[in-house]
Amino acid sequence: MLPGVSAQDFVPDGGGLAGLRKAAADCRGCELWEAATQTVFSAGPAGARLVLVGEQPGDQEDRQGAPFVGPAGRLLVKAVDEAGIPREVIYRTNAVKHFRFTQAGPGKRRIHQTPELRHITACRPWLVEELRVVDPEVIVCLGATAVRALLGPSVRVMRDRGELLTRETSLGAKTFLVTVHPSAVLRADDQDAAYAGLVADLRIAAAALT
After folding, report:
1. Under a CB-based contact definition with an 8 Å cutoff, are residues 53 and 76 in contact?
2. What are 126-180's pLDDT values in tens digits?
3. Structural domains for the chain
4. pTM of whole model > 0.85?
5. 111 vs 125: CA distance, rounded Å
6. 188-193, long-range: CB within 8 Å, 24+ apart, which pairs?
7. Closest CA to 69 of 46, 49, 48, 99
């Protein structure tokens, strides 16, 4: 990251989602691009009715260049289907667009590291512009990083999950729903119960689509 440079300097005026995806490939708004394979931007159509916002790309997403294609992503797709949300109405993205990880050495396994507030802040201009272009009816925050990026510190995942929250944004009043990240389901002691909770939350989001 160069002194005085932020992600906002790379966000284009106009160009739609295609323009955003192209520009994001060259983003140098924080240092995470240096170790990552590539920018992982988003998947889904402009005009999607529901947006799923996760934390950051994982190892498989970083390698493939697409969001939610690893184990957590596959679990999320299953949960979305079970909740009755048509895949074609969903836009998928992350609060942070580069994979943050530690690695003991070349060829060693890359271990996920949670993005810091500075990474979330640096990447937020991309997320704001994505939501402006897509203008969804419902925004689902998957986990604490997405909550920090969009709703701030007053909202807590475990306290506020499953509730429809209305917040004023630059797009006017928007409906948000907070739930766990699918990776938390994979780490849970009782995965069946954790998965059922995720599906139940997503059903609330589905019911909010008008």
Report:
1. no
2. 999 999 999 999 999 999 999 999 999 999 999 999 999 999 988 889 999 999 9
3. 7-208 (3.40.470.10)
4. yes
5. 26
6. none
7. 99
